[in-house]
Task: structure prediction
Amino acid sequence: MTRAAPRVAAIVPAAGRGARFGGGGPKALVPLRGRPLVEHTVAALGAATVVEVIIVAAPADALETVARAARTAAGGKVAAVVPGGADRQASVARGLAAVPPGPDVVLVHDGARPLVPVALIEAVAAAAAEDGAATAAVPVDETLKRGAGEWVDGTVDRAGLYRIQTPQGFGRALLERAHREAGASGFRATDDAALVERLGHPVRLVPGAAVNLKVTMPADLELAEALLRREEPPSVAPRVGIGFDAHRLAPGRRLVLGGVEIPSPRGLDGHSDADVVAHAVIDALLGAAGCGDIGRWFPPDDPAYAGADSMRLLGRVRSLLAERGWRAGHIDVIVMAEAPRLAPHAAAMRSAMAAALATDPDRISIKATTLEGMGAIGREEGIAAQAVASLEAAR
Result:
């Protein structure tokens, strides 16, 4: 019998102040290649198809800033950003309480490990689903000495010793029990695997990754910067595209703009849902990536796209960009229509498109204008939209 794919939630404890790092502010917001540290971490988790939802535990005084960074990185996968606790264990417990119904496996991944490979995330999730508990780990490959003051007090046999990384993964019920019993007894641990070990449950070791470093000291940040520079796409020139679409208005059709159905006696006529806003954005993104136009990827004579939801097409474009190392940067749209009034729907359109692109609504601007009665649009024969979009490196 084929085992059903696990439903996975990821908790990101990112509430530390970074005392060893210095700087005074939340470590989650330390800039790494121009983006907050936590944004890189959440982006990696969001890129793992197995991860369904993400919960971030953030400093109470930086909730909104961390939430904005997290949602920019993983869009609709971020289910909640909660205030962290007094220590890492308390932060994970708060995150665990915020996991919505559904996921049966929970990953815990340090907010300060921004370079975790997607393959490692998925390997730990699979091991946790199979064995109940798993952690990323790398064998100790250096000589270990026990010290007493300033003197060596003996050599430690490194055979069988591991440096533990995250993510760590657990059956949801098991992790909830481990936190519940640790909280009742006052037991504290530096990782969640130790809480599960305390219950007598074995924890599987999953080979970790050398690049999965934890940013603890300023030198760690410099190393992470260097590793990210190495992975950047070779072209550093700005990538900007422009898109345009127009459709006639027709009776008996829904009016869908930017993924939002707008009350109207007429809708736009087209092979799909004729969402001119989404289509203009798709063309702009494809153009910026050098991938042609919407007709190349979603032909208007293909029955598969008859009546298609353009938000689904936008999600396909997001995947297409990711395969090439890009993601949507900023998007600016102007909609040309005499009626209906579109300003009241702009926020909903931004949210719908942001969810499809796994980005933040603040990165999308939608404006509406009329043509003051001039031309076909001015005579209310149709609606048009023009979009400009930029791309940025996906990591």
